[in-house]
Amino acid sequence: xxxxxxxxxxxxxxxxxxxxxxxxxxxxxxxxxxxxxxxxxxxxxxxxxxxxxxxxxxxxxxxxxxxxxxxxxxxxxxxxxxxxxxxxxxxxxxxxxxxxxxxxxxxxxxxxxxxxxxxxxxxxxxxxxxxxxxxxxxxxxxxxxxxxxxxxxxxxxxxxxxxxxxxxxxxxxxxxxxxxxxxxxxxxxxxxxxxxxxxxxxxxxxxxxxxxxxxxxxxxxxxxxxxxxxxxxxxxxxxxxxxxxxxxxxxxxxxxxxxxxxxxxxxxxxxxxxxxxxxxxxxxxxxxxxxxxxxxxxxxxxxxxxxxxxxxxxxxxxxxxxxxxxxxxxxxxxxxxxxxxxxxxxxxxxxxxxxxxxxxxxxxxxxxxxxxxxxxxxxxxxxxxxxxxxxxxxxxxxxxxxxxxxxxxxxxxxxxxxx
Length: 419
Ligand SMILES: Cc1cc2nc3c(=O)[nH]c(=O)nc-3n(C[C@H](O)[C@H](O)[C@H](O)COP(=O)(O)O)c2cc1C
What we know:
The chain is α/β, with parallel strands linked by helices. The protein has helices at residues 5-11, 14-18, 37-47, 50-57, 64-71, 119-130, 144-150, 164-177, 195-200, 210-217, 220-229, 245-253, 262-271, 284-292, 318-324, 338-346, 356-388, 404-408, 410-413; strands at 76-78, 93-95, 98-100, 104-106, 134-136, 155-159, 181-185, 275-281, 297-300, 329-331, 351-354, 401-403. The protein has a single domain (5-408), classed as TIM Barrel (Alpha-Beta Barrel), CATH 3.20.20.70. It is 43% helix and 11% strand. Helix 1 (5-11) crosses helix 10 (210-217), helix 6 runs parallel beside helix 17 and helix 16 (338-346) crosses helix 17. The protein is globular. The termini are far apart. Mean pLDDT is 90; it is low at 1-27 and 415-419.
């Protein structure tokens, strides 16, 4: 069932009273726009109804991984060098032979249209504006063809394998539409236990309930956009042939092909002629196996803490993975500050994917907000390079970081693990 115009209008009835100025409630009497990702998160929380914000911000189980993803950075400190010329700095990097403006990119995220109208296009354009890649999710709310037609820049496609047949047709379409890389996501054989979403009854289309109407009334700016632009839907399947019963059934249940294994990876490798990345890897031995089975790179990820409630933070397995493969390593989950990104680069990551950070920007202020988040992070990366006196992002090494607890013990303490 989709929401009618009248029901939605009731939902925004409070708009007149509440005013539309909820986007940027001042955080200070001096400066009202968000200055960093944490402040964008607050702006997003104010604009989005709770049911949508919880979908964006929540994790699986008791949300241990969700918390670990950000807290882990407190346990890694910098070792700043001194007396180096930092007058000229460079944060650009090269990945798969292509230069990008910074070692970051926009992660694939589903249902972006529930945060902002045409959210996928807004994110793709934001990435294009700053010169970094954008990845479109299988679960996008705009079709891959429409995103390709409306946004330039380097666009990658992320594949969920609902069935081999559907995967084959998605891969063919992505190739035809000009997507340059394929990301296979491997951590959603089945959905994680997301209790916030279960409590709120989150699904697409959003379920009409007294709770949703109240949520809409108290978040009038979002509701107005929603009324004017309609209910988001699964863009890549909106025009699916109604006579294709297999596809329809799978889409209705939104279930994945849980049989997908290493042999299936080799099958996919044959289908896709450009770079193939495997996302969701959390063990160095699996990273080695991905490369042995034809992948060009891995993405260390715990899906932002949204699948296994007690997953390790990907940066915990980064150094070991770097020691075992020479292929590019991308990483995500928990990156909210330039300093977090520089820590991962120092430990051997090539590029950091940003999920929630850019979604906070998108939710607060559309394309402009997403662009601003990317620019803030680029500025923070540059500032961090100056602070630790490593003027070129490509020169970062593990020498620039250390585990916090070891340094507390002095020179002997740092060797204590061998005693
Ligand atoms: C709202 C939301 C939707 C997501 N949808 C997808 C998806 O469709 N496909 C996918 O591979 N990953 C998806 N992810 C995971 C992201 O690609 C990425 O791994 C994660 O967001 C990184 O963690 P971070 O949010 O802390 O940056 C989603 C994440 C969020 C927050």
